[in-house]
Amino acid sequence: MTAMLYTPEENHRRQLISGLRRLAYFLEVHRDIPAPRSVDVIAFLDAQPGAPAFAQLEQVAALLESAVEHGCVAKDFGAVTYRAIAPKEELRNEPC
Length: 96
What we know:
By secondary structure, the chain is α+β, with helices and mostly antiparallel strands. The protein has helices spanning 8-29, 53-64; strands at 39-44, 72-77, 80-85.
């Protein structure tokens, strides 16, 4: 069996997804613990060399099948909202 090697970004992503699943399971099993009415998951995009964050935001918008509005794109998954935000310097004077 070969070991899988992950970059720090991939490892962080896997840990985040695992944590979300564990939280969902925990809330499902422990019905006596109050659950939030809603959850916002926010990804702050970083500009990469040769790839401005606003371009990344447009790519995310296409994957989410949502429109970019004021430097943000969002998609609701029931009571959970995923939101990606471009850095302020790239917002083209549009507050999020």
